[in-house]
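User: Second chain of the day. Same drill as before.
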Amino acid sequence: MKILKANEMSLFDKITIENIGIPSLVLMENAGRCIFEEIKKNFIHAKNILIVAGKGNNGGDGLAVARHLFLNNYRVDIYLAFGEVRGDAEIQLKILENLGLKPLNSRPDFKNYDLIVDAIFGTGFQPPVKGEIGDLINEINASKVDVISVDIPSGLSADTGEVFSPSIKAKITVTFQFPKICHVLFPAAKQCGKVVTADISIPSSLASDVKREILTLKHLKLYRREEDTYKTKEGHILIVGGSRGKSGAVAMSAKAATRTGAGLVSVGIPENLDDILETLLIEEMTIPLKGLDRLSIFSVKQIVDLQEKHDVLALGIGMERYEEGQDIVIDILEKWEKPILLDADGINNLADYGDLSSLKNRKIPAVLTPHIGEFSRLTGYDT
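Assistant: Same format as last time:
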């Protein structure tokens, strides 16, 4: 799934409207309908709903939601956060007024509602929120009423995982066509609650050149095994790592690899720790590698020589951080000519080495699985 920045989404909106010819009001109508459907699905008992609308397109989406709710016999109130709207939002408001639904004249008591639709700020907003609108957001949060946010919770930046104060804490966020960075990076992702990506007719092909992607269980395509398959047909994984006190890490990885479908799993571990894995593992095979309590640089040739019989290498689990370990990781990155996964101290040793060219220069896929601390060490970004 592609992950977009605010300026990319703005560009794709513009292309859809100006080049493809789908009017902005149609996109707004689609957005309003999608949010209405999520309200019906997720807030079954909510009958008394408040729309808090900003003055731009995000507010217009919220006003379109108000119309759908109103026409489906919900009790709906509208509060204009800025006291005015403009552009397509003004058209939406005029339709509501023609239907007999007018905005409130003063700020309501938020606790009187079952659900609040947050349509104050969209992806184009740059935090922080200040002044009266900041007070408004704080009051909404303090009410403890469930909130569904339009596109992003108001007060967040679409382009970071940072939480700015004040910002809406949503139970559900409905975003359009593509998730944004704030929807997937924590702690902002937590502020978004459950994220629903709605199709509002912006062509997905517009994002074909965007390199940011996230894989979810929904998007993983796990193939079904043939009934007459056999172990060597389902791939042979080599897991290399382990050190004194951390042999359990590679054992757990090996068992996980077997359970998730690998036909064969072999584990390379320092030779004096091999007996531990022989005891822990039943289905997986072990390979003693040169090294006492941790891998030696002399194990590299053994590992590289194993690639003829293995399809993929997972390196670094329970390995420890040490100078010789850095050389091991670099040598293997340069010499292993099949897909490789770097985890844990495989990443840490690469980061400690300080030169990522062996990783960048690989022509064959490399997958890294860092937690936030390992990612920080590798990239230099603060946690």
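Residues 24-42 form the longest helix (19 residues).

User: Great, on to the next one.
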